[in-house]
Amino acid sequence: MIKKYCSAFTMVELVVVMVIIGLIASFGIPSFNKSIQRSRSRDAIANLTIIRDANRLRVVNGNPAFACAVSTACTTSEINSINGTRTLSIVPQGAVYGCDGVECLATADDNSFKACVLLDGSAADPVCVETTAGACAKNIGTCASLIVPDPCDLSPAIGTVCSDGTLYAGPGYRTTPADEGTMNWATAAATCAAKGADWHLPSKSELNSVLYVNRVALGIGSGSGFWSSTDFNGNVNAWIQFFSNGAQVSNGKNHTYSVRCVRSP
Q1: How far apart are CA 67 and CA 119, in angstroms?
Q2: pLDDT one-digit tens code per residue, 88-107
Q3: φ, ψ dihedrals at 107, nearest 5°
Q4: How far apart (Å, rounded) are the C-alpha atoms in residues 236 and 149?
Q5: Is the pLDDT of residue 256 over 70?
Q6: Any residues with CB less than 8 A from the CB of 36 and at least 6 apart, and which?
Q7: CB of 177 within 8 A of CB of 265?
Q8: Which of 185, 180, 246 is nearest to 212 (CA)?
Q9: For residue 74, which of 120, 40, 115, 125 has the smallest C-alpha distance?
Q10: Does the pTM of the predicted model rise above 0.85?
Q11: DSSP for 183-249?
């Protein structure tokens, strides 16, 4: 008769396993909690940015800036009031939203962060971010971190200076504040492309509808004519436009003309 023996963990082995599990938990759980905290703070900042921009649109349309009831301790959630007034659908994730009469506030449930935004509807309204609760109320100018809105995000007047120093040139377009000088077509195309993603030498249509039409607001002089990226007669010639009279003609790419780059999505 063959005997079968069943093996089992010894007490020492069980203790070792429990110690290992404990070590893993001691490192993993805090890291997981911090990840949740970062996610919640990003949500709060995004929500306050939405509230800020919606408020600015309200002011731009001739309505009074959003005013909310004072809740100095910021412990009473007013998210339903905010959503109703702004026609938004913000869902708080681990944060309490309230107001102190001047700022809209978002404070973490565990007091790990606080964010706020002024509510006067001006173009310079920033979102203030602090790493601990209790800061930034009515003192937004001394915030540790500011997320300042770009004045070109709300379709301002043509020629408005954007936060990155470019000029607003119409919906979806920005241009440089000055010409790049005169150069041949290949150098012009390379100069615009070197500025980064979405920058390019304007097409024949863009040259006219974006730059020429708005030339006064954008501070563009008559120049000697401006290059477009649009070819004419194969790769030999390209279209140019004279800003003195708006005429569009073609010429050899080896000639030199003025250059104004544009950026669009």
Answers
A1: 7
A2: 666 666 666 655 555 566 66
A3: -120, 135
A4: 44
A5: yes
A6: 94
A7: no
A8: 246
A9: 115
A10: no
A11: E-HHHHHHHHHTT-TTEEPPPHHHIIIIIITTTTTTT---BTBEEEEEEETTTTEEEEE-TTT--EE
